[in-house]
Amino acid sequence: MRAFIYAAGRATRLGPEYARRPKILIELGGRSLLEWHVMRLREVGVTELTIITGHEREQIAVELPRLSQAHGLKICEIHNANFTEGSVLSFEVSLTTVLAGNDSVLLMDGDVLYPAEMLRRLIVSRHASALLVDRNYSTADDDPVLVPMRSGRPFDFVKRWTGEAEQIGESIGFFKVSPAELQIIASETRKRTVGEGRLDSYDDVLRVLVKADRFGAEDVTGLPWTEVDFPKDVEYARNEILPALAGSTIRGV
Fold it and tell me: What are the structural domains, with CATH classification, of the chain?
């Protein structure tokens, strides 16, 4: 299986300390967040990884040969020169490569620290296309993408969602997408490459598929993970999630 990690953004919410460094190169436990991704992907049998870069892309590019050799994973880079606009343009520059195969692919946010079990559940999901949800979420100091569900099926995918649902979870930011749904992603992305659409997020594209009932969901509630958006998230990842991941590895998670 091939994986695509979208890591073009400027990470402005992390403050001046990280203004000149891509978020995916933040060091956590002696490894960059990117290296943790590479290790997890190898654990679940992924053989090819493409990184979509933007902000300070040279710093990422220089790391790729070493990580590829160290972990036995083919790694390529695609640069989004328009990274200051909407993240949908990162989808746009990756479309040719994403559509090059006839297989399902993993589409992944770059700013998540997590166990390999999350990817395993996604890959082996009975759903042709699936996303991950965590029902233990908080909106107190963040603005997560919420996934309301009915009969186990997601029916929306948006921040600040309100309404009635049988279950609501937070999106992890990882997606398994089948070839059929990739064609829809391509079509929806291309609609947004001109005018105001260039400011859209790739979440806007994914929301179209969710609302069309093209995604199933896999529940990963209880697994240790965090998104890294703010300075406090870096400390939480180092002090809470990394120790939890070490313990879960011992237990086989």
Answer: 2-132+171-250 (3.90.550.10)
* E strands, 70-134, in order: 74-79, 105-109, 112-113, 130-134
Residue 132: HSE in the Cβ half-sphere, 13 Å Cα cutoff: 28
Token duo for residue 146: 């919420």
pTM (predicted TM-score): 0.94
Report in angstroms the alpha-carbon separations of 72 from 31, 41, 48.
Answer: 16, 11, 10
Where the chain has pLDDT below 50, the residues are 250-253
Nearest to 22 by CA among 52, 62, 60, 77: 60
CB-CB contact of 224 with 7 (8 Å) = no
Give the Cα separation of 120 and 195 in Å (integer).
Answer: 39
Half-sphere exposure of 129 (CA within 13 A, CB side): 18
- Are 178 and 236 a contacting pair, CB within 8 Å? no
Q: Within the chain, how many helices (H) and strands (E) appear? A: 9, 14
Task: Extract the runs of DSSP E, i.e. beta strands, from the chain.
Answer: 2-7, 27-28, 31-32, 48-53, 74-79, 105-109, 112-113, 130-134, 145-150, 153-154, 158-159, 167-177, 216-219, 226-227
- φ/ψ of residue 242, rounded to 5: -60, -45
pLDDT in tens, 85-121: 999 999 999 999 999 988 999 999 999 999 999 999 9
**By C-alpha distance, which of 122, 88, 78 is closest to 208?**
88
Answer yes or no: are the C-beta atoms of 197 and 143 closer than 8 Å: no
Of 252, 181, 164, 189, nearest to 216 by C-alpha is 181
Strands 27-28, 2-7: parallel, antiparallel or unpaired by DSSP?
unpaired
